[in-house]
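Hi Q.,

Before the meeting this afternoon, I wanted you to have the adenosine-2'-monophosphate prediction in hand. No need to reply - just skim if you have a minute. The sequence and ligand are here:
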Amino acid sequence: MTNHDFGLIGLAVMGQNLVLNVESRGFRVAVFNRTGSVTREFVAAHPGKAMFGATTLEEFVGSLARPRKIMIMVKAGAAVDAVIDSLVPLLDKDDIVIDGGNSLYTDTERRDERLRGLGLRFIGAGVSGGEEGARKGPAIMPGGPASTWEVMRPIFEAIAARAEGEPCVTHIGPGGSGHYVKMIHNGIEYGDMQLICEAYHLFKSAGFSASELAEVFTAWNDGDLESYLIQITAEIFRQTDPETGLPLVDLILDAAGQKGTGKWTLQSAIDNGVVISTIHAAVEARILSSMKERRVAASRIFDRPAESITARDKAALVGMVHDALYASKIVSYAQGLDLIATMSREKGWNLDLSRIAAIWRGGCIIRAKFLNPITEAYRADPSLENLMFAPFFRDALNRSQQRWREVVSMAALAGIPVPSFAASLAYYDSFRSAVLPANLLQAQRDFFGAHTYERTDRPRGEWFHTRWPEVAD
Ligand code: 2AM
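Predicted structure with the ligand bound:
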């Protein structure tokens, strides 16, 4: 049988769910997994489906209609190369290989170049939505040649989530741009999650119970914060532990894990000279959380502040924290999108931020009502320099800034760490400051290193050096 429309290698949960999704849209699917028992069990668990479980890679490749369309869903890194290495000798000209894992975009560019040199076609596709998204409809961010996208388009559009009637997949751009955009999506996701955790920390310190927290987040999910992450947060607060009857969240150890995409996002920001301080704070908050033993020891050594958060008026606190979260979220997205725009210019990718924001509206982890005005903002002004400048977001920041400041200062006085709220506020305040103290910094640099400086009373581009006095050691 050489008539299968789509092949997938790697039957971990994401791979299995994607296969079920593709099959459910009327495509005939062939599957292969390195460990054959996984393939057998998967196919046996889903009788009556248009699905072929191949026992060898040769059989798998032979079962696919040409040009073959093969998606790889294995662990990012060496496993992807191993699978590609074993596939290459079996493929024919113009066959398409899609890497749907969380690969580093530079790896994708390397693989793209190699496969192109062999007459094959490669797509690096970010897939977001977790296990449920893979089954019911993820957001898909494919990068590669537009002509290859056109071949894959019917399958991708059929399996993707939909938002406002549009499929949550679009051709992102050439080369590694799909995986790059997925990486930034994950960085933004880190920011969103940390901001929610900071709001939770404040409420918890003010004595909110789990059921009160569930109510707050349920109500927020009806307003401008409406999003998947706010929705699941409300559900989390409702979950009780079957053994103890206590809220489950209170029994979960406060030491966060992370894989690679947050770190890669920071590295790319540094390489491109783009500030993504909210996301940076979110990644570092996970690192600090993971040092559980050291934190417990330190908690016994250092004094607590005299003040604590009191919530005589809980509704007022909820309103304040809402504004701090919303404003910080605007900043976080402004930073992440700035990084995408900068990289797009750097690499000549010509990415369309409006379309990227549009496909994030459904399927993926950061899906949110909030992405509608972002889509609109870039649609109205494709060369928008920073999301904060879009009238909708400018007005929201102006409306929120007072209460945002009150939340950050209240947290500082009570010793509650709010690294992403505070980093966002500092970014906003730096951004809107016509004058910063970098004049002094330039003087210092000129003092010890003769790095020269420009003057406020002379045109830009003229450089001056002062003979500073010598200082005694
Ligand atoms: P396995 O079941 O044989 O371990 C997630 O780890 C998925 O990636 C699994 O389907 C796993 O297959 C597959 N995988 C991991 N490393 C691999 C490799 N080097 N070659 C092929 N598949 C691999």
